[in-house]
Amino acid sequence: MANQKISRPLLLFAATLSLFLLPSSAQLRQNFYANICPNVESIVRDAVTQKFRQTFTTAPATLRLFFHDCAVNVSFLSPSLSLSPPQGCDASVIIASTPGNTAEKDNPDNLSLAGDGFDTVIKAKAAVDAVPQCRNKVSCADILAMAARDVVALAGGPSYAVELGRLDGLSSTAASVDGKLPLPSFSLDQLTASFAAMGLSQTDVIALSGAHTIGFSHCNRFAGRIYDFRGRAGSVDPTLNSSYAAQLQAECPRNVDPSIAIQMDPVTPHTFDNQYYRNLQARQGLFTSDQALQEDARSRPLVDAWARNPALFNRAFVTSMTRLGRVGVKTRPAQGNIRRDCSVLN
């Protein structure tokens, strides 16, 4: 999959057909809970802030959890195409596995999700349900969407109004994740096709990749770039800054535990800012899929623009997060419900 070349006709097919497959987001709206649970946003924000103060990992973990939840959608990279309703932003990633079912969170592609993200949503849900008027009235999917916005703001990024009104999904299977999440080895074409399957654009690819300005990655996710690149003994990816490559080798020796994690942004790892794009200009993108945004002439103009102008990046990120939050939403009772426990199906 990582070396698959995505053709232009397939990109167009994915972008066009996805428009017909994705549920309408028309029923999502700001202030959805105004008459149901008027203070829900402040309740969630307070719970998220408390968790954030305990550990910064809360920020990247929650933001990544939101993406992984929404990105499990119809995939045009898979050999088969299902016309059944996609998972999308429905908190299905939070469901715990049972003896009879292996849930999304236990798919190998989700095993690196940090527990702090799940804990943030669970604690925010408990805070909401502690208010009698709000108990069992606010979906876990909406709480996750609000929490993702809040951790971005707490880390120094933009705050924004979140569209709400999602219901929680009725199923969660590990198999539904297969082939759906973009890989660190993806080219721009592969990233674009993956996002097109969610109804998102190449601009969304570049903007949402900016979330890598915070967080961490395990060594095994990029070891191929710093050792034996493309099977050549001792070689390093030539698109990687040599000094940065040496730094990565020092932090991730050949025989190191592959689960050891390092910061994705070597300059301002605890601040949500536009440093990610400056890093790409300096050839300090950690993943192949990161550096591809600078190396490819089609995406480079936006990388350069957002590296120069943080306000411009912030606006683009908010727009793309809003679009991401509409993917595969459930708004009708036949599609979903409001879970009493975010980790257990009702």
Automatic annotation (TrEMBL):
<keyword id="KW-0560">Oxidoreductase</keyword>
<feature type="binding site">
    <location>
        <position position="88"/>
    </location>
    <ligand>
        <name>Ca(2+) 1</name>
    </ligand>
</feature>
<dbReference type="GO" id="GO:0140825">
    <property type="term" value="F:lactoperoxidase activity"/>
</dbReference>
<keyword id="KW-0349">Heme</keyword>
<feature type="signal peptide">
    <location>
        <begin position="1"/>
        <end position="26"/>
    </location>
</feature>
<keyword id="KW-1015">Disulfide bond</keyword>
<dbReference type="InterPro" id="IPR019793">
    <property type="entry name" value="Peroxidases_heam-ligand_BS"/>
</dbReference>
<comment type="similarity">
    <text>Belongs to the peroxidase family. Ascorbate peroxidase subfamily.</text>
</comment>
<feature type="binding site">
    <location>
        <position position="90"/>
    </location>
    <ligand>
        <name>Ca(2+) 1</name>
    </ligand>
</feature>
<feature type="binding site">
    <location>
        <position position="69"/>
    </location>
    <ligand>
        <name>Ca(2+) 1</name>
    </ligand>
</feature>
<comment type="similarity">
    <text>Belongs to the peroxidase family. Classical plant (class III) peroxidase subfamily.</text>
</comment>
<feature type="site" description="Transition state stabilizer">
    <location>
        <position position="64"/>
    </location>
</feature>
<feature type="domain" description="Plant heme peroxidase family profile">
    <location>
        <begin position="27"/>
        <end position="346"/>
    </location>
</feature>
<dbReference type="GO" id="GO:0020037">
    <property type="term" value="F:heme binding"/>
</dbReference>
<feature type="binding site">
    <location>
        <position position="273"/>
    </location>
    <ligand>
        <name>Ca(2+) 2</name>
    </ligand>
</feature>
<protein>
    <recommendedName>
        <fullName>Peroxidase</fullName>
        <ecNumber>1.11.1.7</ecNumber>
    </recommendedName>
</protein>
<keyword id="KW-0479">Metal-binding</keyword>
<comment type="function">
    <text>Removal of H(2)O(2), oxidation of toxic reductants, biosynthesis and degradation of lignin, suberization, auxin catabolism, response to environmental stresses such as wounding, pathogen attack and oxidative stress.</text>
</comment>
<keyword id="KW-0732">Signal</keyword>
<dbReference type="InterPro" id="IPR010255">
    <property type="entry name" value="Haem_peroxidase_sf"/>
</dbReference>
<dbReference type="InterPro" id="IPR033905">
    <property type="entry name" value="Secretory_peroxidase"/>
</dbReference>
<feature type="binding site">
    <location>
        <position position="182"/>
    </location>
    <ligand>
        <name>substrate</name>
    </ligand>
</feature>
<feature type="binding site">
    <location>
        <position position="213"/>
    </location>
    <ligand>
        <name>Ca(2+) 2</name>
    </ligand>
</feature>
<feature type="disulfide bond">
    <location>
        <begin position="37"/>
        <end position="134"/>
    </location>
</feature>
<feature type="active site" description="Proton acceptor">
    <location>
        <position position="68"/>
    </location>
</feature>
<keyword id="KW-0376">Hydrogen peroxide</keyword>
<dbReference type="Pfam" id="PF00141">
    <property type="entry name" value="peroxidase"/>
</dbReference>
<dbReference type="GO" id="GO:0042744">
    <property type="term" value="P:hydrogen peroxide catabolic process"/>
</dbReference>
<feature type="binding site">
    <location>
        <position position="268"/>
    </location>
    <ligand>
        <name>Ca(2+) 2</name>
    </ligand>
</feature>
<feature type="binding site">
    <location>
        <position position="104"/>
    </location>
    <ligand>
        <name>Ca(2+) 1</name>
    </ligand>
</feature>
<dbReference type="GO" id="GO:0046872">
    <property type="term" value="F:metal ion binding"/>
</dbReference>
<keyword id="KW-0873">Pyrrolidone carboxylic acid</keyword>
<keyword id="KW-0106">Calcium</keyword>
<feature type="binding site">
    <location>
        <position position="92"/>
    </location>
    <ligand>
        <name>Ca(2+) 1</name>
    </ligand>
</feature>
<dbReference type="InterPro" id="IPR019794">
    <property type="entry name" value="Peroxidases_AS"/>
</dbReference>
<feature type="binding site" description="axial binding residue">
    <location>
        <position position="212"/>
    </location>
    <ligand>
        <name>heme b</name>
    </ligand>
</feature>
<keyword id="KW-0408">Iron</keyword>
<dbReference type="InterPro" id="IPR000823">
    <property type="entry name" value="Peroxidase_pln"/>
</dbReference>
<feature type="disulfide bond">
    <location>
        <begin position="70"/>
        <end position="89"/>
    </location>
</feature>
<keyword id="KW-0964">Secreted</keyword>
<feature type="disulfide bond">
    <location>
        <begin position="219"/>
        <end position="252"/>
    </location>
</feature>
<dbReference type="GO" id="GO:0006979">
    <property type="term" value="P:response to oxidative stress"/>
</dbReference>
